[in-house]
C-alpha cells in the first residue's frame, strides 16, 4: 500500500470508535468477573504472541510467562496481593516475569509494561476480558508469587493477568483531555 494512502487510512482511524484494527485500544476495559468457561489454547497462544511482539529496550525481551490453569494455584495467587482477590474466579492467570540479567535492567519494568498492555489488548481483540494486577515493584507481592509458583531465583514476577470470557460489560471511559496536549509548532 502506498505510504500516502496508509497515512490517510491511519488518520481516518484516529476517529474514536471507528475504523479498523486496534479498535481494542478504544474498547479494552479491566475485566474482573468471568464466565465459567475455559479459554481455548489457541487464544492463549495468540495472547502470548501479542505480548512477545512488544517493543523492549535494546530489544532485550526480558520476559518469561507462566500460564496458570490449576484452580488451587490460582486461588493461592489471588492471595499474593490485597488487590488480586478477583483473580480467584478466572479460568486462566498469566504471570509475566522478567529475568535478572539483561542489557538494560533499568528498563525491565518498562519493557514488561509494554508486553502486558499487548496481552490485554489481544485478550480484548479475541473477545476475552483481562485485568493487570500489579506485583512488581512491591517486594512482598513478588516474593509471594515467587513462592506460589516456585519461580527460579533469576526470574521475578511482574504482574498477574487473570483472563476469561467476560461476565461484565461496560463502555470504556473516554479519558481524552485536550488540555493535556501541548503542540510545539512553527
Ligand atoms: C500498574 C497497574 C497495576 C494495577 N493493579 C491492579 C490491581 O492490583 N488490582 C486490580 O483490580 N486492578 C489493577 N489495575 C487496573 C486498574 O485499576 C485499571 O486499569 C484502572 O482503574 C483503569 O480502568 P480500565 O483498565 O478499565 O480502563 C492495575 C493497572 C495498572 C496499570
From TrEMBL:
Domain annotation Nitroreductase: ranges: 27-80, 87-165
Entry keyword set: Oxidoreductase
Pfam families named in the record: Nitroreductase
GO molecular function, one term: oxidoreductase activity
CDD domains reported for this sequence: nitroreductase
InterPro entries: Nitroreductase (IPR029479), Nitroreductase-like (IPR000415)
Homology family: Belongs to the nitroreductase family.
Protein name, as recorded: Nitroreductase
Record organism: Roseburia hominis (strain DSM 16839 / JCM 17582 / NCIMB 14029 / A2-183)
